[in-house]
Amino acid sequence: MKKCVVYTTITKGYDRLKDPKNQENDFDFVCFSDDNNLKSEFWDIQPIVTPDLDQTRKARYLKSVSYTHLRAHETDSY
Length: 78
Fold this sequence. Notes:
This protein is of the alpha/beta class. It has helices spanning 55-64, 66-69; strands at residues 4-10, 27-33, 44-47, 75-77. Helix content is 18%, strand content 27%. It has a four-stranded parallel beta sheet with strand order 3-2-1-4.
């Protein structure tokens, strides 16, 4: 596990997951999604486990409580 993590959320297929242009080896990359079919060789895909919320609130929820899902990292960036 690396000290820094970059994370994003994709809900209800709203967006496509893209690999970053500058792929830093010192960072972990995590995507939280409610799409069980989403796959990536670069991103670590994690399921969204939240209360029953709409897609906008799911993303906001994860931004507000990222520390509970990304505890092993010292720094995170959305």
